Amino acid sequence: MSLAICPGSFDPITLGHLNIIRRTSRIFDRVVVLAMANASKSRPMFSISERVEMIRRVTACYGNVEVSTFDGLLAEYAKQYDDAVIVKGLRASTDFENEFQMAQINKMINPALETMFLTSSEKYTFLSSSMVRELAGYGADLSEFVPREIIDEVLARAQGGKCNG
Ligand code: ADP
């Protein structure tokens, strides 16, 4: 049974992330979307449990996708599986340097671990969680950027709500 791990901070999950998760779910038997607690920047918009809950809600329609969280090194997390593959999205050349470096380091820590990349869909190449957070701060229309199920929460949080836990 093939297993993919899609890691990220998902603060919040965007349509770009969801596009990668959906495409990965068509290729692999099982997909674990892993919200990394330590990957988020200094002041996250959403707590790790809020991020996990939002990812669960927007991926509920995919039968082979599950959501988990980890506060540690991805390469260590992957050791619990025999044949897991990390799948990440590549937006532009700017992602490449960083992703190349992370893939090499992960392989040094866990030599059995392979990393594969899916190129971002053209319409999401520019999209990042940080851009969503910034737009939300201005009350912008987010319908082209995040799943509709979470638009209201993202806008409400950006307009001054506090992160719970
Ligand atoms: P962000 O950079 O938006 O904060 P994450 O750190 O959560 O996102 O990224 C997790 C993974 O999702 C990374 O592999 C990243 O390249 C990928 N990703 C993020 N946004 C997109 C997008 N718009 N299209 C494709 N892949 C993406």
Give the key terms:
about 160 residues, alpha/beta, Rossmann fold, globular, binds adenosine-5'-diphosphate
Layout of strands and helices, then pairs:
Blueprint: E1 3-8, H1 15-27, E2 30-36, H2 48-59, E3 65-70, H3 74-77, E4 84-90, H4 93-109, E5 114-119, H5 129-137, H6 151-158
Parallel strand pairs: 1-2, 1-4, 2-3, 4-5
Helix pairs in contact: 5-6
Rg estimate, integer Å: 15 Å
Q: Which sequence of SSEs, written as H and E, runs from N to C?
A: EHEHEHEHEHH
CATH architecture: 3-Layer(aba) Sandwich
- Report how far the terminal alpha carbons are from each other: 36 Å
Count of alpha/pi helices: 6
Largest beta-sheet details = 5 strands, parallel
- Give the strand line-up of the largest sheet: 3-2-1-4-5
Bound molecules: adenosine-5'-diphosphate
Task: Give the strand tally.
Answer: 5
- Principal-axis shape equals globular
Helix/strand-derived category reads alpha/beta
Q: What is the average of the pLDDT values?
A: 93
For the record, the CATH class is: Alpha Beta
CATH homologous superfamily label: HUPs
Helicity level, as a percent range? 25-40%
CATH third-tier fold name? Rossmann fold
As a percent range, the share of strand residues is 15-25%
